[in-house]
Amino acid sequence: MNKLFFTLIVSMTFLLSYSQIISYELIESWSQEEVNQIYSEYSIPENVGNVIYAVDGYKLTYYTDDFDGEKVLCSGSIYFPRNIDCEPPILSWQHGTMVNNFFAPSNIGNTDNDLIGAIGASNGYIVTMSDFIGLGDGEGIHNYIHAKTQATSTIDLILIAKEISNEIIGVESNDQLFLFGYSQGGHATMATVKEIETFFSDQLQITASAPMAGPYDMSGAQRIMLETGDYYPNPGYLPYIIFSYDKIYNLYDDLNEIFKAPFTNLEEMYNGNYSMWQINNYIWEVAQENFGISPYEFSPINIFNEDYYQNYLEDENHPFRLALADNNVFDFIPTSPIRMLHCSGDDNVSFDNAQNAYNYFVENNTLNIELIDGGDYNHEQCATIAIIGAKMWIDSYADLCETNVNLEKYSNKEVKKRIIDVLGRSISNNITNFNFQIDVHEDGRYNKRINFY
């Protein structure tokens, strides 16, 4: 059966069965050997997880609620472990900032999201990834850093994964749900935790979540970072937020009210055909040629008209300020374990976002909350460190299938082991002052949630 015919059959079936699903299609598969090659090619530590299953990656289209409650087409991907014989948990990955539709998770086989999907499913998870509204094959403008719709588009895909898992792999998922994401995905992860625990607790129970390097405090820490007027490595983020929030909050009637010309030409670059690298370079070129500002002297606030920006600074009820506040995602009391990972050297998302969120949770007597500082690394450098650490921590909670490792040959001799910390780094056997360590044995076994004091 060819893919097109298969997709049409599935579309017709699920339009009748489930109101949200439009279609799903098998796009790419990975054998165990191919997943092992991913570990090798990208120097991924073996302790990230055992490669047990081949993986099938499916692209989905589905309806989800937009900011105004209207149904809108959204796309995403789900990675399933093949020939699994027990109920797997669901691992929901929330992607970072992207502008070009090519890099959306639903473009399976072509993006870095494949690494997380293939590895997670090969370890025994069902891995879900929403493109979020307006990316991939979705309709309209992307709702960038919009808490509510990032959360609901993620939740709808998780619910779909639970509905179709038996159809795809012959078993249903178990009741465990894990969420993690980096940068925009960190914000989306925290927003999803808040949304599930507030409105969906009768359908989903979160086992644990790991938001990483997210702008949780949009009206505080992240706003202050941009208002310094200092160089910012991704100036294209700010207009992205402006265009997104204008769609939702009606920030302006004419872009000339806000931006200096020719920055008013930027909007067309957010149509899904350009990368953030291209947008950043365009901004720097315009700043150099029209205002004599070099890239390393340029701040995103240089895009604004002076009158508009001054009004924004002086008016606490300015529409843009109110929109930022509406997308803070730390103002709730989580009931499930959260480990935030963030590097104090982050040059894109202020570490104060994580610190402020952590302080709020602690001040409100929230249990099972941690903040891990990955060190003096910038936003890009921190990503791999944080994602590996988050995955390992999630594994410590996961009820995964038995791996059927033959332990008989180790019964009469000592099996070598090494101890690793929360970020996947090897540490000395005599170091004990860590709240979370893992013994990784030579045969692939590991002891989870070991605490030394």
Structure description:
With 453 residues, this protein is an alpha/beta fold. The protein has three domains: 3-217 and 328-395, Alpha/Beta hydrolase fold, catalytic domain (Rossmann fold), CATH 3.40.50; 228-326, 434 Repressor (Amino-terminal Domain); 408-450, no CATH class. It has helices at residues 3-17, 32-41, 113-122, 147-169, 184-199, 218-227, 237-249, 276-291, 306-314, 319-326, 352-363, 379-395; strands at 21-30, 55-65, 71-81, 90-94, 126-130, 177-182, 208-212, 338-342, 369-373, 417-420, 426-427, 437-441, 446-450. The protein starts with a helix and ends with a strand. Residues 1-19, 405-418, 420-426 and 428-453 have low confidence and may be disordered.
CATH topology of the largest domain: Rossmann fold
CATH 2nd-level architecture of the largest domain: 3-Layer(aba) Sandwich
Order of helices and strands: HEHEEEHEHEHEHHHHHEHEHEEEE
Helix content: 25-40%
How many helices does DSSP assign? Answer: 12
Assign the structural class, choosing from mainly alpha, mainly beta, alpha/beta, alpha+beta, or little secondary structure.
Answer: alpha/beta
**CATH class category label of the largest domain:** Alpha Beta
Distance linking N and C termini = 59 Å
Biggest sheet descriptor: 9 strands, mixed
What's the structural domain tally? 3
Number of strands: 13
Strand content: 15-25%
Q: Can you identify the CATH superfamily of the largest domain?
A: Alpha/Beta hydrolase fold, catalytic domain
Identify low-pLDDT runs: 1-19, 405-418, 420-426, 428-453
Cα-atom radius of gyration = 22 Å
